[in-house]
Amino acid sequence: MQNIAPDARTRYRERLSPSLWLLVTVALAGPMVALIFVPVGSTIALIVGAAVSALLVIAFIALTPVVSVEGGVLRAGRAHIETRHLGTPTALSGEEARQARGPGLPARGWHMIRGGVDGVVVVPNIDPDDPVDTWTVSTRTPDRLAAAILASRG
Q1: Residue 23: phi, psi to the nearest 5?
Q2: Each residue's pLDDT tens digit, 93-142
Q3: Is residue 147 within 8 Å of 123, Cβ to Cβ?
Q4: Buried-state track 45-54, b at ≥16 Cβ within 10 A, e below 16
């Protein structure tokens, strides 16, 4: 039996999938496209409209960013940073998270903000060679993400 190094395991993983209302809104593009093909034939219009709706919903789900902490690395979408370069994370929700996403958002920070996701984790970057001051990451479970960052630092 093989033992996995404790630092290599996944400590946190979350897909920031779009809300149901956004998926319904995207799916409504299908009937609009179907109207264009009605002069060609109603069956073709129905098939094309259904295909467009399905493809758009699948694309919106597949292209959503993933936030994870594994192997001592925080990944937020395509960006990543080793957790040893991060300070103590701050988990925010409610009014504090709204403030952090809006007027309190640092200009020199790196941000991954998603609409419809209330929670935010703000983590200072302590790497002196990196021009980015903080990382601000949307998450549905800010306490768990902050704990995972702390645990992966050792």
Answers
A1: -65, -40
A2: 999 999 999 998 989 999 999 988 999 999 999 999 999 999 999 999 99
A3: no
A4: beebbeebbe
